[in-house]
Amino acid sequence: MTDRLLEVKSINTYYGEFQALFNVSLHVDKGEIVALLGGNGAGKTTTLLTISGLLKPRSGQILWRGNDITDIPAFRRVEMGLSHVPEGRGIFPKLTVYENLRVAATTKRAKEVFNDSLDMVYSMFPILKARKKQLAGTLSGGEQQMLAIARALIQRPLLLMMDEPSLGLAPKLAREVIFMVPKLRDELGVTVLLVEQNVALSLKVADRAYVMETGRIVLEGRSSELERDPRIKTAYLGL
Amino acid sequence: MDPEILTSAILDGLLIGGAYALVAMGLAMIWGVMEIINFAHGDFMMLGALFTFFLFTSAGLDPIISALISFAPIFALGVIVQRGVINKILDAPLLTQIAATFAILLIIRYGVQAAFGPYTRRLVSGYSDIYINLGFTTVPLPKVIIFVTSLIVLGLLYVLLHQTDLGIAIRATSQDRRVAQLMGINVSRIYDVTFGIGVGVAAIGGGLIALFYPIFPEMGGFFALIAFIAVVLGGFGSVYGAYAGGLIIGIAESVSALFIEPALKDVVAFLIFIMIILVKPTGLFGRGD
Ligand SMILES: Nc1ncnc2c1ncn2[C@@H]1O[C@H](COP(=O)(O)OP(=O)(O)O)[C@@H](O)[C@H]1O
Ligand SMILES: [Mg+2]
Fold it and tell me: Between chains, do A90 and B176 touch, taking CB under 8 Å as contact?
């Protein structure tokens, strides 16, 4: 039997009267890397925000390890092992790099192992250690993205949701960030839900993927199959 | 002009500035974290003064100790007000926010008037007549106490905001309330604490001001205005800027009283305010937290 971490059941999310998500359903099993793909405005960010609790769906359910968490506030979902690296990184520019990491350790568990976690993320991203006393707002875009990922790892998540980690990075760096995902899974054992517009690269690192258009999931399947799907080839891979 | 007169005026203004700073720091903190202008801020200060007065007269407690103790009940009241009112208007239009905190002002001010009468009370204690001789001038002990306390509170707030997990979470929340939730921070609890500390510090200020200033239900109005100007001066939202702003207003008032009709000295604060708005609307220090 698979170990289902997350199950999103037919959610409909609105911004005021504007419906952004239409019956979105997806699931992520433990140990998987799942990509959520689609163009600008497809509803990827809205989906992640609904999963992490910053947006409430008007209908539908979010199940976490089988339990309904739809009505649980966002900050408590972190405690359960759900971490979200938001679009645009969301670092605190006027906190130091160290403070950005420290502030992520809010749960008892994360606080207890904070020093170990810190060693871990510093060895993973040595630049953060070198800049630990610097204000996070002074970091480059790539460094900020590393900080955002490191900060989520400090929370010791079971599921890490990343919203376009490659956005705004130079192509080489964007590639590096996306190829870091399998390393996170293999070395740290975190399950990943990766939101990306970079379809080609994401399909290379993901086990499975969902494709969204105008608030709906329009395709889903194993990455290897989707890479060969003619609809993906024409719409996203420019082939 | 005699330089000694000028020096004593500056010194006196600096000490009074400590009182303004105590009221202003909390106002700045509340604005910086929650983006709420607390119009009732001076009235929480007045409650601190009144609480101190009653602890002193009824329980016979030392007035300085009483003023420090007043932090606790006013903090608690602040948490109640934050949960009952402020939390519900955080995303409301500015006018709604103004109306709501103004309503709190009215309730506190006229609630006190109804409960304890419209009287002016004076807290006459052993501290009232003690002066410290500095050679070239003498300064009244109560003003020294309030200035020293303001420095200590400034230091404590610095330690809180920079050295503790709670403080780092408060600063993170002030920068991005949504991402703070993704960190696992319970943002409404941060707001409780912020509002509580903000009005609690003002209450300490009120309690100490009562050592040399009459206590009456409307006393908060004047101090809230001064605090507001200090906050603008300090760059809107910076606790340290507001502290400096409070001192600057104290000194400006006191020095100007040497040259103009003393009754007009309150106008000085407003002149400073208008000048800042015209010349450097971001405040003297920008916003650095
Ligand atoms: N804060 C908002 N208010 C109103 N509409 C929004 C807001 N955020 C996103 N939308 C709309 O919701 C739809 C989905 O947006 P989003 O989830 O950000 O897409 P994606 O992340 O796939 O680019 C878009 O049509 C977008 O314009
Ligand atoms: Mg997006």
Answer: yes
Ligand 2 centroid to residue A86 C-alpha, Å: 9
Describe the crossing of helices B187-209 and B219-233 by its angle, rounded to 10 degrees: 120
Domain that holds residue B202: 3-279
CA distance A65 to A46: 21
CA dihedral B200, B204, B210, B213 (to 10 degrees): -90
Give A26's contacts (C-beta < 8 A, 6+ positions apart): A6, A7, A8, A34, A36, A47, A210, A217, A220
Pocket of ligand 1 (CB under 6 A): A 15, 18, 20, 38, 40-46
Q: Is B262 a residue whose pLDDT tops 80?
A: no
Residues A20, A61, single domain; the answer is yes
Q: What is the pLDDT of residues A34-43, one digit of tens each?
A: 999 999 999 9
Q: Is A131 left (phi over 0), alpha (psi -120 to 50) or beta?
A: alpha
A182 and A132 belong to one structural domain = no
B43 CA: distance to closest CA in chain A (Å): 32
Q: Which residues surround ligand 2, an ion (CB under 5 A)?
A: A 45, 87
Interchain pair A83, B289: CB under 8 A: no
Do the strands A59-64 and A67-68 form a parallel or antiparallel pair, or are they unpaired?
Answer: antiparallel
Confidence (pLDDT) at B289? 44
Residue A109 confidence (pLDDT) = 87
CA distance, residue A4 to nearest chain B CA (Å): 22
For residue B53 the two structure tokens come to 């007065």
Please report, for the domain that includes residue B213, its CATH number: 1.10.3470
- Which residues partner with B133 through β-bridges? B138
What's the CA-to-centroid distance between A87 and ligand 2, angstroms?
Answer: 6
A162 and A211 co-located in one domain: yes
CB contact under 8 A, B187 and A75: yes
The closest ligand to the CA of A86 turns out to be 2
Instruction: Specify the residue with its C-alpha closest to ligand 1, atom 21.
Output: A45
Residue-number span of the structural domain to which A39 is assigned = 1-81+158-239
Q: Which of A198, A206, A148 is nearest to A172 (CA)?
A: A198
Q: At what angle do helices A141-154 and A114-124 cross, to 10 degrees?
A: 150
- Contact yes or no for B77/B199 (Cβ under 8 A): yes
Residue of chain B minimizing CA distance to A102: B165
Residue A1 scores a pLDDT above 60: no
Residue pair A191/A159 in contact (Cβ under 8 Å)? The answer is yes
Cβ contacts of residue A28 below 8 Å, gap of 6+?
A: A4, A5, A6, A34, A159, A191, A193
B101, B37 contact by CB (below 8 A): yes
Q: Identify whether the C-beta of residue B22 lies closer than 8 Å to the C-beta of residue B149.
A: yes
Residue with the two structure tokens 């995303």: B91
ipTM value of the model?
Answer: 0.95
Q: What percent of chain B has pLDDT over 70?
A: 98
Distance A157 CA to ligand 2 centre (A): 22
